[in-house]
């Protein structure tokens, strides 16, 4: 059973605050971990410390100073990475005062503090307010902070006077993750109330939220991806709105790229397989911006029901992964394996879209002792299961 926010927060003012070991230094065996820790801390505290140690280890993917932070499992899972939080916070740069009404563990609060003169951070959970206060100090210790941050324990509906408002509602109100606005906590009605109160409102939502529900909120939508996953939808209301739907994804070498919808633009062209197969960034797919991407990289779609594109040249940037096509054939394990053997490929990565296949099982059937490396892409082409045998092309390669 996971430690509660209250149990984690209690460590901050306890004698054991500085006794949190690094996860990599602990024994791999769970029993030995507990036995070792109980030599230095009470038995009642050991499980909480162990969980925080594990969470700090996981949190390194999101926070550069995770080893100094305090967070519970649910709050860490819902939090955005520092990079995405900083990207969102830029939307509020013209606001003097911003209220972060669901501060959680403080990731967005610290990002907003870099942009605004004053940030008012609040949360319904007093434990998370305590963690947020500690974490903001940790995250901002080596950063240039523009303004002051204050903290309060309060429900989001009891919001303070501010120039702008940021909201990251819990999507577990029904006891499990949900993609529907009706399950948000605080409720979606608060978003509408805030939009009537302020002209600068930003709301982080699940990227899986249905389009019709997102559009009903008004404003504009940013779909944000990182590490090959579309992480969230950021709804921008009032002055924050860009006036269009955008896909945001990391540039090679740092920073962010944006692809915007073009109203009234023609659909994506259709083509037979060309020299390269392109796999669009997931934010572009989620934002339904394939026609815009096709125009930018001189590509075409392979099938109206698939997101894979084809082109004569590899994609020059991170808007799509590129694969050079070596074989194109109707999908059968026997047929694909025969062609892999001819090419000398034994180490296989399998990708699929729109086809019923177990990727890991297919990979096991296709791999062999041959030295070559390749990618097998499975999809439907004109309604038929199809396979492309490819090799990955590095981003920016010609």
Task: Describe what this molecule looks like in 3D.
With about 400 residues, the chain is an alpha/beta fold. The protein has 3 domains: about 5-60, no CATH class; about 75-245, 3-Layer(aba) Sandwich (Rossmann fold); about 275-395. The protein contains 13 helices and 16 strands. The strands form 2 sheets. It has a 9-stranded mixed beta sheet with strand order 3-2-1-4-5-7-6-8-9, with helices on both faces. Helix 5 (about 80-90) crosses helix 6 (about 105-115). The protein is globular, with a radius of gyration of 24 Å.
Terminus-to-terminus distance: 51 Å
Structural class by SSE content: alpha/beta
The CATH architecture of the largest domain can be named as 3-Layer(aba) Sandwich
What is the count of helical runs?
A: 13
Helix/strand order, N-terminal first = HHHHHEHEHEEHEHEEEEEHHEEEHEHEE
Q: Please tally the β strands and state the result.
A: 16
Count of distinct structural domains: 3
Categorize the overall geometry: globular
Low-confidence stretches: none
